[in-house]
Amino acid sequence: MGRVPPPQPAGSKYITPLGAQRLRAELEALWREERPRVTQAVAAAAAQGDRSENAEYTYGKRRLREIDRRVRFLRRRLEGMVIVDQPPSDPTRVFFGAWVLLEGEDGAQCRYRIVGPDEFDMAPGYISMDSPLGRALLRRRLDEEVVVAAPGGERVYAIVSIEYESVG
User: Are 142 and 159 in contact (CB under 8 A)?
Assistant: First the structure.
């Protein structure tokens, strides 16, 4: 039995133009700025002699592995991405990129944007299309009720509005 953990499912391949730009910027910063800086620090630490008890060298090598792992992930992820920059042909249904206003049974309203798994942390109100709520909302229409399994039990929401941002 190996020590390598099983690969995680990659998630949906859809992303907004802003999300793709953010991932490209992260890749560029890691490859062009941070990796050369850490490589230089590792070389300086290695020049000090005994590497077995050199904390800077050990930490630097570990950080280089982390950077290289993230760079490989970002390159593979960006390679297969589908950038969604147009609203769907049927704007009365919930699809990727939609802003959805929901009303709970208690009358409280909340607004979410359906985005890909690589960008749901970009802003408040962004949820992944792979999340339970995101999956429940996809392809639903205005005024439809949506039932979502939550840790405290099932929750019921009504879709109050669906909006798409214009790109361009």
Answer: yes
146-157 pLDDT, tens digit per residue, is: 999 888 889 999
Q: At 28, list the tokens.
A: 């560029």
In the block, tokens 């700025």 appear at 33
Residue 9 lies in a domain: no
- Radius of gyration over alpha carbons of the chain, in Å? 22
pLDDT given at position 128: 93
C-alpha span between 123 and 58 (Å, rounded): 36
Domain end call among 22, 57, 83: 83
Torsion of CA 90, 94, 98, 99, to 10 degrees: 120
Q: How far is CA 95 from CA 30, 108, 134, 154, in A?
A: 32, 23, 9, 23
> The domain containing residue 117 runs over which residues?
98-164
